[in-house]
Amino acid sequence: MQNSEWSGGLSGTLSKKCLGCAGNLTFDANIGALVCHMCGKVYDSKSMEEKGSFALAFREKEYEEGEDVAAEDLDKVEFVCDSCGAQVVTDTNTTATFCSFCGSPTLISRRLTRQFKPDMIIPFSISKEKAMSLYDEFLETADKVPKDFSSAKVRERIKGIYMPAWLVSGELKTDITATGIRMEDGIQACYDLNRTLTFSLENIPFSGSKKLGQRMFEAVEPFNMKEATDFKTAYLQGFYAYKYDSLPENMIDKIETRIDDYGRECGKKSWDGKYDVASDHYQTALTGVNVKYCLVPVWFMCYEYEGLYYHFVVNGQTGEVCGRLPVKESIAAKAINKFGKITPVLFSVIAAFLIGLLFMVYVTIKSGGNTPMGSPMWWLLFLYSSVVCMAITLPTVYIFFYKRYINKQLKKSSEKSPYELDRRPPVEQYFALNGKINLEKNDRFATALAKTKVGENETRYTML
Ligand SMILES: [Zn+2]
Ligand SMILES: [Zn+2]
Fold this sequence. Notes:
Radius of gyration: 32 Å
Distance between the termini: 43 Å
Structural class: alpha+beta
Bound molecules: zinc ion
Strand content: 25-35%
Helix content: 25-40%
């Protein structure tokens, strides 16, 4: 009896329908609410009250065939790449001669097939010259860059592109339960920690174009939203804008994961180092979800090399750079990474023995059988000539290597690359203006354990 009641309750929850589009609602443990993956609406699981939406309130409308383009879209044109399908929008005064994504020169220009109306735009503040010099610095960080990457063909593919971004805002509530342990007068005290953090997050950006992956996007974040302004076609002149090809309601998982991580990040800070936290559990919920559509400026380059795509992305507002280059290390670089500062010594010893060997080949031939290879005399001469050579190779190789490679290479391998892809900005970056963290504490003493030493390395805890 009880069993059927349980299953009835469960299937009742699962079959709840979205009040907006009648799509099936699923309970999402990440945000602790019911979510419609069709339209993005979020509902409280008990009261069915709408708690926000991952969808855009006003989305771009497709133009039907034969339908006239709206007056505000007449000043724009669309280019479609025949080879990779990339679609860019620009103003009618700007042309495109090749695809900035795949490099294909076959572009078809046409009138817009969909409205183009972002809520906001952040204009470019980084010039093309600056972007190019950042590219040169980027190339210098790799040890051996294939020639292609510094060729004019690749350099001219760096283009100023407005990328579609979904800016997600909402109030984040994180419930935390954990066990905290601390020492009190030589006794180990355990506490049940129950905390609730509430704070507002504002304008967390998510890439709306599959051409720019979220990891790369996060690596060049943040964008300063104070400079965002209403969209006008004039901003497109000389630049291109990618049309969005993924909608926020299709990337709810991605959004929730990041929101969830941010909830944990703040939760961990709330311990203040007062406890050793043994086991913690987090439950996050984002309410009042609101999504805006903003164009953000990036200098962008994508190049296919030996079957892999390599990207170079510059935040067109702040100059933050991320990218990847093919890794091809020289023998010298590999040796330096392995042997460190002793590498020049190893190289000069090897060089000296090689020269010594060459000398011995000469001697063996010249002496006409008087010093056969492998004889004690031969070995003696070989060692002697090699050691003499070392007096020349040691300083030569050392000076050459030390100046040119060693310090540079050791520094490079110990430092984190400034161009790394996984660089998500910390949660503080997206706190709402004048936002405060509201922290409710309900920490309770649970048990105390007395610590007794048993033997050398073992300690035993007994409940008091
Ligand atoms: Zn729906
Ligand atoms: Zn293309």
